[in-house]
Amino acid sequence: xxxxxxGLLERDSGKTSITVSMLNTARELGFNAxxxxxxxxHNAWNQYDTLARSLSLRMLVGEDAFKLWVASNRVExxxxxxxxxxxxxxxxxxxVSLEDYTGLEKTAVLxxxxxxxxxxxxxxxxxxxxxxxxxAPTLRRELLKLAYLTKAINISATRLVNIxxxxxxxxxxxxxxxxxxxxxxxxESFNNAAFPTPFSLTADWVVLVAPTRVFIYRGKDYAxxxxxxxxxxxxxxxxxxxxxxxKPEKVLEICPRTRSELxxxxxxxxxxxxYITEKxxxxxxxR
Length: 287
Prior knowledge:
Layout: E1 2-7, H1 15-28, E2 33-36, E3 39-43, H2 48-57, H3 63-71, E4 84-88, H4 104-107, E5 108-117, E6 120-127, H5 129-132, H6 137-149, E7 153-154, H7 157-165, H8 168-181, E8 184-188, E9 205-210, E10 213-218, H9 219-233, H10 239-243, E11 250-253, H11 267-276, H12 280-286
Parallel strand pairs: 1-8, 1-9, 2-8, 3-4, 6-7
Antiparallel strand pairs: 4-5, 5-6, 9-10, 10-11
Helix pairs in contact: 1-3, 1-11
């Protein structure tokens, strides 16, 4: 079974908290579940912890991917559970104009693409030196160190955009592998994107996360709506554009959590799993 978790807001919808809670609930009940973060992005300045952790791991890894990996009990290599990871960094304001603060081509400095071929994992790191040279010296030294440790290949910003644009095939190959191996795969989308990759639209259920609520959709109903919108305006579709045209099958309230409780098993994660498995997981465990 595949569950796609999407967010209503571009930031701070609570996708990762709910995804981790669902994974912890499923695994606490004894079921074979794994989390998957197809596309991840993080900022070396605002999320410096991710850069420090990546240096320690000698691999580019984002915060959300790390949390999903831990909640999945580290059953797979962390790079396999987050095949595409992009690290952004703000340019030095003493060097560049404010116009250079936005967009992948201006702010991406490192990236990783992980592929699966005949059961073997291959991870390749990339560094965009043209952007890296615009970073303030202290942060730049840390980034150069990570590029060295990961043996990152120097590419242009344009080339990186091309790699990202053509990565879906490799990401979906990993997703199919996980679906063959695990009873439950929970896929977390990025920002408020309606879907991260084409194959993720074959999910059995879609869980939309918003502050205080989750909205549960049948996967086929959600996918049909996305496909109808895509036929008119292309595939870069956000969740708010989709939910205007499809009704949820179930709406549940999310329990408030302190920072230390994020990802904890609570009534909401149990109710979500109970509903999407049509009580199969809960009943089976009760026997």
